[in-house]
Write a structure and sequence with these properties.
Blueprint lengths: L10 H8 L4 H11 L19 H10 L17 E5 L25 E5 L49 E3 L5 E3 L2 H10 L4 H37 L3 H28 L7 H13 L5 H10 L3
Antiparallel strand pairs: 1-2, 3-4
Length: about 300
């Protein structure tokens, strides 16, 4: 998971939410004035605004086609879903709560998620709070008084990396109670996801191993170049030096590629890259080369 800063909401949402006869206005009237239940509204109301194509497309762009929680990329045989961070129609474990129905089309409440993270087994309608007595039940209540125990990647006041970190094998570990709850509710330790993160983590380790080996070879060839007096041998050595420099450049570019925001598991990759580079701090020249080219 990484922090995401969403741009302005789609005009379609702005227009719909400001409409006095629109979906948001109607559901607030049904629930707060007419005191209806979802059973009463079964055949007369349904949420449609959040699933509009313009909204879905914008969310997909904002999250770089990745799940807001597990950071998996969606392949051609799977689909992303609009996820309501605060559930729109009921809250798991709270049978008296009608859900955060007034936020069904609220841009700040909409995320892009994979079907697994958003399933009833994981996030679904779960929304745990530190103090359940502070839960909002209607649009006039203050959401700011709630203390959610789940990390919201779009919350500018929270740094995800302060709550979660990754081991060298790709295993995700909590730093805080919010991190722990998020791992559990979002299903971030499920076996298939862990296996995929592990594969990415090991590939990253191999790239750094290759860089270290290539750098040692480079230093060796450079030392040989200063000691030989044979012109032909010097040319061969210089050729090998160029090849090693080129290899190191390519490997560094692979790392830079893996920490780009649109890449899968970039939250983990960035943390692991920091660790790998810090381990090389005693090698001042290589450390400087890496920190100069790899911006974290």
């Amino acid at each position: 998971m990484i922090n995401i800063t969403k741009r302005a909401e789609p005009r379609y949402l702005t227009n719909q939410n400001s409409d006095t006869n629109g979906e948001r206005a109607r559901i607030i009237k049904y629930m707060e004035i007419d005191n209806k239940t979802w059973a009463d509204l079964k055949n007369v109301f349904s949420f449609n605004v959040y699933s509009n194509r313009a909204v879905k497309n914008q969310l997909k762009i904002e999250f770089y086609s990745k799940c807001a929680f597990c950071e998996s990329l969606f392949m051609q045989n799977s689909y992303g879903e609009v996820e309501h961070w605060r559930p729109k129609q009921g809250v798991k474990g709270n049978p008296n709560h009608k859900g955060y129905y007034w936020l069904a089309s609220d841009w700040d409440n909409l995320l892009w998620a994979c079907r697994v993270c958003n399933s009833t087994k994981y996030k679904g309608t779960h929304f745990p709070l530190k103090d359940i007595a502070k839960r909002s039940f209607k649009s006039t209540h203050k959401l700011s008084e709630e203390e959610p125990m789940l990390l919201n990647p779009c919350n500018p006041n929270i740094k995800v990396e302060d709550h979660l970190y990754y081991k060298s094998n790709g295993m995700i570990v909590d730093k805080t109670s919010k991190g722990k709850t998020s791992i559990e509710v979002y299903g971030l330790m499920r076996a298939d996801l862990q296996a995929e993160r592990q594969r990415h983590a090991f590939e990253l380790s191999r790239i750094f191993e290759q860089i270290c080996i290539a750098y040692e070879d480079l230093i060796f060839y450079m030392e040989c170049s200063t000691q030989t007096k044979s012109v032909d041998f010097t040319k061969k050595i210089d050729h090998r030096i160029d090849k090693k420099k080129s290899l190191i450049d390519r490997l560094i570019k692979q790392i830079i590629e893996r920490i780009a925001i649109d890449k899968e598991f970039v939250g983990m990759n960035r943390q692991l890259v920091k660790v790998h580079i810090s381990k090389l701090s005693s090698n001042k020249l290589l450390f400087k080369l890496l920190t100069t080219q790899i911006k974290l």
